[in-house]
Task: inverse folding
């Protein structure tokens, strides 16, 4: 495991800077996926079905079954390219030796333990499917032309939490093994570990995806306060979608105060308008 990769990763309350890296990553990766990201039944209810890319990944990485890797590349070509080239940085997906490189990378005993733990904890993700279905149903009513992405799970060697692509979003299960997971003590502080558990998967997911839909107009010219305010707007939306306060900050409080005074401001207007008088002293 590369310690540099582990240190790059940040939890949501620190991720204002790392968010822009993720969005840039997503914009570099096209996704012409073959699987439907959701179903709509007769009453127009949206049902999200998480694609279990992690299971194919785990099969290959723990047994060396190359048929699993072939399925990864066939069914999820862009997600596999993203994992190899943009997250792990171990080479090009068309490298003749990439199969062996990918397998060798994950042979570290710590990573093998992480894979096993992730597959154990997330054998069933029905609760996440349900939460995402409800969240996307709400967001479709708030955001014009809202597109439901393909949602998939993967193991990222602790490099990222949520990976946003062009039309897909990956959940890195190894970053949500619980705040008491022993390995986390080595790399993350107490505040970070509090967010590295199952209940933060959907809030993190929604926040990253909203930020990908509404990036700051000039992210590299924005001040830290402007970035924090933009993050606060996205986290305020997440809290509203979830129906409870998942994230807390002075920026979120100020967004809430502004929206209370301007109840006719839509979520779309809130996220698009960088000139709203939401300021923090």
Result:
């Amino acid at each position: 495991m590369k310690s540099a990769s582990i240190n790059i990763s940040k939890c949501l309350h620190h991720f204002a800077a790392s968010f822009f890296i993720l969005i840039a990553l997503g914009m570099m990766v096209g996704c012409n996926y073959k699987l439907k990201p959701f179903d709509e039944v007769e009453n127009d209810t949206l049902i999200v079905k998480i694609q279990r890319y992690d299971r194919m990944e785990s099969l290959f990485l723990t047994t060396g079954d190359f048929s699993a890797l072939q399925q990864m590349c066939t069914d999820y070509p862009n997600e596999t390219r993203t994992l190899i080239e943009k997250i792990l940085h171990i080479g090009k997906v068309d490298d003749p030796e990439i199969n062996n490189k990918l397998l060798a990378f994950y042979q570290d005993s710590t990573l093998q333990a992480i894979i096993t733990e992730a597959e154990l904890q997330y054998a069933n993700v029905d609760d996440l499917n349900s939460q995402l279905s409800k969240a996307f149903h709400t967001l479709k009513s708030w955001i014009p032309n809202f597109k439901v992405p393909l949602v998939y799970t993967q193991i990222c060697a602790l490099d990222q939490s949520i990976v946003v692509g062009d039309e897909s979003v990956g959940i890195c299960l190894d970053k949500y093994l619980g705040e008491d997971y022993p390995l986390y003590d080595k790399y993350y502080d107490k505040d970070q570990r509090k967010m590295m558990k199952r209940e933060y998967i959907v809030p993190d997911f929604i926040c990253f995806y909203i930020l990908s839909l509404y990036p700051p107009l000039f992210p590299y010219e924005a001040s830290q306060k402007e970035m924090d305010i933009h993050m606060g707007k996205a986290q305020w939306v997440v809290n509203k979608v979830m129906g409870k306060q998942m994230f807390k900050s002075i920026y979120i409080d100020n967004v809430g105060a502004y929206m209370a005074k301007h109840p006719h401001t839509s979520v779309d207007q809130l996220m698009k308008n960088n000139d709203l008088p939401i300021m923090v002293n």
The chain has a mean pLDDT of 84. The first helix runs from residue 3 to 8.
